[in-house]
Amino acid sequence: MTEISMFNGYNPTENINLRAFVSFSESIRYDVDDPSVGNALFMGTFNNFQLTPKLRLSPSVRYSELRAKTDKRLYFKGYIGRLNANYQFNQNLSFRIIGEYNDFDKDFFVQPLLRWNPNPFTIFFIGGTNGYSRIENQTNFHLGDSQLYFKFQYLFDL
């Protein structure tokens, strides 16, 4: 199976990091009733923007499609868009929030995380995940699932 791919990166300043890729290949369509090999396109970009010494934004988009080799029929296509925002309050305390939209499933999630690391041997995380999706024949998103989690780690010296 053949693949042709290209990856490009560009850093115009120390605070901006731009990356893009594209790949053309043959790929297998995993279908129990009709497995086949098709022509795949996979491309995307992922970037970092250090807006201030404490705030960094990292957006990314990945697009993928697969077409039949014979009649160019579309098996699937879609994209995933993601934004990752990090804020470093000080050396010990930081906050991150991730938002992601999945065009394949037509849903998105939001994932906040607070991290406190007062010393090299102690760490505390608290965060959650909220998944949103559309109900058929409606335009609004509704909360589909939600999780809350935390972790506390401390090294005891015996």
What does this structure look like?
- It is built from no helices and nine strands.
- It is mainly beta and 158 residues long.
- The chain has a nine-stranded antiparallel β-sheet, with no helix packed on it.
- The N and C termini lie far apart (57 Å).
Measured as a percent range, the helix fraction is under 10%
Strand count, sense and barrel status of the largest sheet are:
9 strands, antiparallel
User: How much is the average pLDDT?
Assistant: 90
State the end-to-end CA separation. Answer: 57 Å
SSE string:
EEEEEEEEE
The percentage of residues in β strands lies in over 45%
User: How many β-strand runs?
Assistant: 9
Helices, by number, come to 0
Task: Assign the structural class, choosing from mainly alpha, mainly beta, alpha/beta, alpha+beta, or little secondary structure.
Answer: mainly beta
What is the radius of gyration computed over CA atoms, rounded to a whole number of angstroms?
21 Å
Going across the major beta sheet, what is the strand order?
1-2-3-4-5-6-7-8-9
C-alpha geometry: extended
Unreliable spans = none
How does the SSE layout of this entry go?
Blueprint lengths: L2 E11 L2 E14 L6 E15 L4 E14 L5 E15 L4 E10 L4 E13 L2 E13 L6 E14 L4
Antiparallel strand pairs: 1-2, 2-3, 3-4, 4-5, 5-6, 6-7, 7-8, 8-9
Keywords:
single chain; 158 residues; nine-stranded antiparallel beta sheet; 0% helix
Give a quick summary of the entry:
The chain is mostly beta strands.
